[in-house]
Amino acid sequence: MSTITAETPLTDTHAHGEHHKPNWFFHYFWTYDHKMIGLQYLWTAFAFLFVGGALAMGVRFQLAYPGHVVPVIGRLLPATIAVDGAIIPAGYNALVTMHATVMVFLVVMPLVIGAFGNYLIPLKIGAGDMAFPLLNEVSYWLYVTSGLILMSSFFCPGGAPASGWTAYAPLSAVGAYNHTQMGQSLWCIGIFINGLSSIAGAVNYITTIVNLRCPGMTMFRLPLAVWALFITAILLLLAVPVLSAAGALLFFDLNFGTSFFKPGGEGQPLLWQHLFWFFGHPEVYIMILPAMGLVSEIIPVFSRKPIFGYKAMALALAAIGVLGFMVWGHHMFVSGMSLTMSAAFSVSTMFIAVPSAIKTFNWLGTIWRGSVQFTTAMCFALGFVSMFIIGGLSGIFMASTPVDLFIHHTYFIVAHIHYVLFGGSLFAVLGAVYFWFPKMFGRMLNERLGIFHFIMTFVFFNVTFFPMHNLGLGGMMRRIADPTIYEHLAQLQPLNILCTWGAFGLGLSMIPFFVNIFYSIFYGPKAPNNPWHATTLEWTVPSPPGHGNFAVTPTVYHGPYEYSVPGMTKDYLPQNEPAPEGIHLEAH
Amino acid sequence: MFRSFLRFTLVLATAFLLLATAAHAETHTTNLYWAPQNATVGGEKIDVILNSIFVLTTVVFILTQAFLIYYLVKYRRREGVKAQYSHGNNKLEVVWTLLPTIIFIALVIWSNRTWHELLQSPIPPDALEVQVVAYQFGWDFLYPGADGKLGASDVRLITPDNKFGQDKSDPAGKDDFTSAEFVIPVNKVVHILLRSRDVIHSFYVPQFRLYQDAIPGRTISWVRFQTIRTGNFELACSQLCGAGHYNMKAKIRVVSQEEYDKWFAGKAQAHAAAAAASATESKDQNLVQASEHK
Questions:
Q1: How many angstroms separate the CA of residue B190 from the nearest CA in chain A?
Q2: Do A409 and B60 touch (CB under 8 A)?
Q3: Residue A358 and residue B96: Cβ atoms within 8 Å?
Q4: How many other C-beta atoms lie within 10 A of the C-beta of residue A434?
Q5: Are the beta carbons of A406 and B60 separated by less than 8 Å?
Q6: Is A367 in Cβ contact with B215 (below 8 Å)?
Q7: More confident residue, B275 or A529
Q8: Which of chain A's residues have a Cβ under 8 Å away from the Cβ of B5?
Q9: Is the pLDDT confidence value at B288 over 80?
Q10: pTM
Q11: What is the pLDDT of residues B30-41, one digit of tens each?
């Protein structure tokens, strides 16, 4: 089929949607509509969020009550995870490994990139669809396939992989060491296919953003979410193939007796770490940049103020993109890599903290002298800023090489990553769901329930993850199935129990969220086209938008955040409306 | 709705502040909030940096969160008050780009000097050299005998029979003895040769402020430390290494020089006796093998 461009006459795209009304299968399961593909990603990723969350509950239960019988479901767990209802150490390793793998590859990436990327990019740049709609749908199904393969590892002989989501060789590369040869092989295949999905998506996003912008939509008039997704797509395209290749090599090591990563045949265990982190560090930014973009959309709307320092924000994203490829070695300060390399990577790591600081200051600047409305979406966006500050500051500890000698691989890094990935990315996703739900489903979410959800999430998030800083400083190693057998850790057990109860609360805090969603989809009040009085193009079309998005290809006259322009009666100026006679817009 | 949110935020902020101050105040009284008491010279230097970063980040944390909350209260939506139309301020952008950059440069210079001092400076010749070998799931230690010198060894010589990869032809290695616990004389520089027999493990002692991965196929030769107090510690593996990882530990005893000498004498004697016994036993066999080689 021909691709739909911004210039495609609207009658073509619209007629397409009206003339043959697809049956339910082609509407929900095999569709070329970027909006439905975005929603496919959204629902699938939320389903995996439950899997990843359940695995986390298992991990937390074991750490608070090591060796106790897991209540209710203990005896239903497979023998590779639990024996007589109590989690075994090897099973604990599998839980940890799969929790991280699921959350990174099947939840956060699909949410921030797959769901919101697909849904928002064409709508925000004034295009009818993605550049390659078929590739888009193929990319979704590759993602589902990778998810099913990873899930199947729970049921294969030996059970799920248990060498950590980082799969350090040679533990991961030799069946005799890990005892989960089949599970680890399935992990390699799953990660490989997941990588294909990401690469296909990235190609699509880059092509779409470069080619399908509507007339007047210059690069510096792009909403920051699109900027963020653009940089993210470039990172994906450069980083993910490295992981896919490394995964394939690991599969050969495991099954065909090669020795890329095994020392016995002159392979190098450190090679795996370099390949993994060459992907793995840009990956961190792949998961946080789109979240920063989403938050940068929400904050100006509810501050009724243009984003502070648009160009600085866009350039900071680009700077993170470039520097993101120069810092992977900070995961390896104490890995046995050359000590001089460690010192060098510590320099680049300090520098990459600067653009993140710039972004934080600009968000504060946006609120400054604004007119702040505390909607649920805004609360989550503000929660993101607040938690991202903590996650950013705790990163400084580990960037200092000598301090890393002490806290490397402790719970300090577990706290750090969760402040960035949950307090960061997932808070942004939750805020984005509250923000774009009216556009996606044509109904409003319940705000009161939303605020309740936010408060629960915010409190329990901090109860769960803040004490982990203390656990880390106390010397608690990551990925140990039973901290109580160490003298210096046994005394920290009250903190572990606190984290665990926080985690249970955090799990429960998702209930009001899903109640809200499933109730509002059917019974929520009907949403107007532009419920938040926002300026970007997706709010100029019906909620939900029809096939082909725009009835008339829009023309853009100015930047994306024209709020509270002096001299205007309404306090926002959509991108497709020129400034009224006599009104002067400030350059940004 | 807004008021409850405000109250909630204030309560939370207070809780955070209390937690942060408590963490700082109780540094030396309890270990629930802070690091375990340090036991090495290097650890003291690391703690200075750690505490400085803690102070720095706490200040930044309080300032940013306070500004955030203050702005949210001050600039909350009110009837008739319009937001200020502004796209930003380039001067401010320059300030908040340069300021963190300068702080980070200072921090990285300080950090890397200490890093060099801790791991890359020359090792004193009188340091006690010990080979530490990690395996699934435990630790072995090889001490130099009476000559004070470890015999030559190579990671490629490691086999199930030669757990330390010792070069049997080196006479300096004849008196080297093994131990299942890591006994260290206090105040002496200890230099370890770190190896692994199977997968990646890591040498981690929080009280020593020391972490280093052991990589199979390589010898890590830069780890050294000097203890400042006696006591019992646990050596833990901190790199996921398989099913038994959680329990892969060894005892570390930091003892006075006299106590160490006593332990050393006992170990060396036992080793000499065992070597003599096995020598007489396998003498004939060795002779046969030797002649076959010729």
A1: 17
A2: no
A3: yes
A4: 26
A5: no
A6: no
A7: A529
A8: 374, 379, 451, 455
A9: no
A10: 0.92
A11: 567 889 999 999
Is A414's pLDDT higher than 70?
yes
Locus of tokens 């629902």: A43
- A&B contacts, CB < 8 Å: 319
Q: To the nearest 10°, the Cα dihedral for A78, A83, A85, A88? A: -100
Q: Which residues pair with B191 in a beta bridge?
A: B129, B224
* C-beta separation of A367 from B86 below 8 A: no
Interface test with B, best of A180, A311, A348, A350 (most B CBs within 10 A): A350
In chain B, which residue's Cα lies nearest the Cα of A391?
A: B61
pLDDT in tens, B152-179: 999 889 988 899 999 989 988 889 999 9
Question: How far is A365 from A378, CA to CA, in rounded Å?
Answer: 15
Task: Count the residues in chain B.
Answer: 294
CB atoms within 10 A of CB A496: 23
- H/E element holding B197? none
Q: A101 in contact with B at a CB cutoff of 8 Å?
A: no
A583: left (phi over 0), alpha (psi -120 to 50) or beta: beta
Give the closest-approach CA distance of A12 to chain B in angstroms. Answer: 39
Q: Quick one: which of B7, B36, B25, B23 has its CA closest to B207?
A: B36
Structure tokens at B151: 């015999």
Q: Which of B88, B200, B204 sits opposite A308 (nearest CB)?
A: B88
Question: From CA A521, how far away is CA A438, in angstroms rounded?
Answer: 9
Q: How confident is the model at residue A20 (pLDDT cuts 50, 70, 90)?
A: low
Q: Per residue in B88-133, pLDDT tens?
A: 999 999 999 999 999 999 999 999 999 999 999 999 999 999 999 9
Cross-chain CB nearest to B1 (options A178, A369, A451) = A451
Kindly state whether B50 is in contact with chain A, defined as any CB-CB distance less than 8 angstroms.
Answer: yes
What is the predicted ipTM? 0.91
How much is the pLDDT for B11?
Answer: 60
Tokens of A423: 């307090």
Cα pseudo-dihedral A299, A304, A308, A310, rounded to 10: 80
Alpha-carbon span B45 to B206, nearest angstrom: 14
The answer to whether the Cβ–Cβ distance between A371 and B234 falls below 8 Å is no
Question: Amino acid identity of B78?
Answer: R
- CA dist B33 and A463 (Å) reads 15
- Nearest CA to A573 out of A306, A295, A393 is that of A306
Q: Which residue has the tokens 């699921």?
A: A102
The H or E element spanning position A501 is helix A493-508
Chain B residues with CB-CB distance to A373 below 8 A: 77
- Measured between alpha carbons, how far apart are the two ends of chain B, in Å? 93
Distances (CA, A) of A189 to A208, A486, B38: 29, 37, 45
For B141, the token pair is: 């230690």
**Gap between the Cα atoms of A430 and A105, Å rounded:** 18
Which residues of chain B lie closer than 8 angstroms to A496, CB-CB?
A: none
The partner residues of A86 in beta bridges, in order of sequence, read A69, A83
Across the interface, whether the CB atoms of A474 and B136 are under 8 A apart is answered: no
DSSP tally for chain A: helices H, then strands E: 21, 2
How close, in Å, is residue A246 to chain B by CA atoms? 18
Reading the block at residue A273, the tokens are 């770490």
Whole-number Å distance between alpha carbons of A86 and A335:
33
